[in-house]
Amino acid sequence: MERVSDDRAFALTYGLWRPRIVISDGLIARCSDDELAAVLEHEAEHVRVRDPLRIFLCRIAVLRSLLMPVLAHLAQRARCDAELAADRRAAPRIGPAVLARALLIASAPPVPLAADVISGFGDRDMLEARVLQLEGARVARRRPARRAIAISAGDCCS
Q: With contact defined as beta carbons under 8 Å apart, do 128 and 107 qualify?
């Protein structure tokens, strides 16, 4: 784990081959010991399953096929699935309410880092899905837009 001197509250996992956790002084200052433990449990799951590498490979697939909007949707869904899976693994160990509090404290996006190699809290929809899951709700997967499917199908068939 690496600690960075930054007043903003964030934690993230980065590194393709040897993932590492970064936690900011701002997050440490704002969280209780239980909340910090929840953040570290969550991030440790990203390290365990090598999420930065998996997310990076998804993004490469999208970049290699710019005319494939469905791939962009699937890459975003893979990122959301990674966050939800890390939450599911961390919540029983520390408690869903504690993890939800930590999530809300750290939900402000960090500095613009190389998004290709990090797993972070994500966009507003992802944050909502994560909180709903921690409340015990089943999170529905969004489907790609029909237009994206049509454009992708047209690209494949030409």
A: no
Rounded to the nearest 5 degrees, what angle is found at the Cα of 77, between the Cα atoms of 1 and 130?
60
What predicted TM-score, i.e. pTM, was given to this entire model?
0.71
Residue with tokens 């869903």, as numbered in its chain: 96
Task: Give the pLDDT confidence of 22-69 residue by residue, as tens digits.
Answer: 999 999 999 999 999 999 999 999 999 999 998 888 878 777 665 566
pLDDT range class, residue 72, cuts 50, 70, 90: confident
Higher per-residue pLDDT: 86 or 137: 86
Q: What DSSP string describes 95-132? A: -HHHHHHHHHHT-S--S---GGGEE----HHHHHHHHH
CA distances from 111 to 8, 9, 59, 114 (A): 9, 10, 20, 9
